[in-house]
Design brief:
The complex is a heterodimer. By secondary structure, chain A is mainly β. Chain A contains no helices and twelve strands. In chain A, the strands form three sheets. In chain A, strands 2, 5, 6, 10, 11 and 12 form a six-stranded mixed beta sheet that branches. In chain A, strands 3-9-8-7 form a four-stranded antiparallel beta sheet, with no helix packed on it. In chain A, β7 and β8 form a beta hairpin. Chain A is globular, with a radius of gyration of 13 Å. Chain B is mostly beta strands. Helices cover about 0% and strands about 55% of the residues of chain B. In chain B, the strands form two sheets. In chain B, strands 2, 4, 5, 6, 9, 10 and 11 form a seven-stranded mixed beta sheet that branches. A four-stranded antiparallel beta sheet of chain B has the order 1-3-8-7, with no helix packed on it. In chain B, a hairpin with a 2-residue loop joins β7 and β8. The chains are: A mainly beta, B mainly beta.
Chain lengths: ~110, ~120
């Protein structure tokens, strides 16, 4: 069975600083995908970044990068230059069934 | 990114009635759709996975006779909450994917309140 673990219920970061949100996973599959989504208070789910298990390079999308360490089964999200609008819930997820971790609430303060 | 439209955004219904929620992929063909339930301040709980033209696969503990899922076409999946009760009140959200392990796009979610 697949499992996603996010151990940080909440994180605070000052504007313009970088922050790392942790995610570990467990699966017996050789091929899988890892995702990060953002959920603001409005409830919508916003796709941020994707990492395939066979991708050799860490994924990057603008200010978002994914620190993928396959041997450790971790897929941490790094947000650089935090903005006030980054305050939201962040969820890590994996395929084949798109299951989610418990989420981390990020709050960015001025 | 691709667009997934979910309707209605919110619905209030009387206890004992049934409610249908639609999830449409507007600009791509979704071979797989996922249905989730989310309680306040909690994560998304996967209820079922549906593939076009076949029966949905329900997660353990989800009553398939209560939460009817139909994925009749590559652009439409529906979730019907039958004989709704107040404990079914929740935020329901769907996502759609073009292929396995691909990015999934989410609908806006439906807030269901059963009174």
């Amino acid at each position: 069975a697949q499992k996603i673990t996010q151990t940080q219920p909440g994180m605070f970061v000052q504007e313009k600083e970088a922050v790392t949100l942790d995610c570990t996973y467990d699966t017996s599959d050789q091929s899988y995908g890892l995702f990060w989504y953002k959920q603001p208070s409005s409830g919508e789910m916003i796709f941020l970044i994707y990492q395939g298990s066979y991708d050799e390079q860490n994924a990057t999308e603008g200010r978002y990068s994914l620190n993928f360490q396959k041997a450790r089964k971790s897929a941490n999200l790094v947000i650089s230059a935090s903005q006030l609008g980054d305050s939201a819930m962040y969820f890590c997820a994996m395929t084949d069934k798109l299951i989610f971790g418990t989420g981390t609430r990020l709050q960015v303060f001025p | 990114g691709a667009v997934v439209s979910q309707h209605p955004s919110w619905v209030i219904c009387k206890s004992g009635t049934s409610v249908k929620i639609e999830c449409r992929s507007l600009d791509f063909q979704a071979t797989t759709m996922f249905w989730y339930r989310q309680f306040p301040k909690q994560s998304l709980m996967l209820m079922a996975t549906s593939n076009e033209g076949s029966k949905a696969t329900y997660e353990q503990g989800v009553e398939k006779d209560k939460f009817l899922i139909n994925h009749a076409s590559l652009t439409l999946s529906t979730l019907t909450v039958t004989s709704a009760h107040p404990e079914d009140s929740s935020f329901y959200i769907c996502s759609a994917s073009q292929r396995i392990r691909a990015e999934a796009f989410f609908g806006q979610g439906t807030r269901l309140t059963v009174v």
